[in-house]
Amino acid sequence: MLFNIKQLPEGLRDYYNEHWKRLMMKTQSRALILCLLAYTPTPISCKCIASIVSSKMQPLDQYDALEVLEEWIQFLREQFLEEETCYSIYHKSFAEFLQLKTKLMQAKSKLGDIQQLGDIQKRLSNYTDRLLEQVEQEETEEDDEDGEEE
After folding, report:
1. Helix axes 92-108 and 28-39, enclosed angle (nearest 10)
2. pTM passes above 0.85
3. What is the distance between the alpha carbons of residues 27 and 121, in angstroms, rounded to a whole number?
């Protein structure tokens, strides 16, 4: 089922829109970080966020990413995973709101900054694929070790 912004209570819709306006007044990397989190299915670390969002034209390190995350912490969930603090969007409705807004902006082509989102989504997909391969390899190694112990 497609997300419909009109399904949100009017007060919540206004609240999200105010924050969207505030976000769009900031730098490209700030907007891209939150949009990245909106499309990320699992929590992701500052270091990973910075590596995915950073570009030659607008370099970003993990401290820059952390500054943005701290500014928007009210919308985020922090989790300690694999010895790192990882972040995700707290409310599904806010993630869906961000996804819808970025799609509308891409369709209208009024915001070149957000058009980089497609490239970032590809980098996120590559990152996720590498993580899955790593997990599968670790599981295979654990199975091999268990087999040797028997």
Report:
1. 120
2. no
3. 19
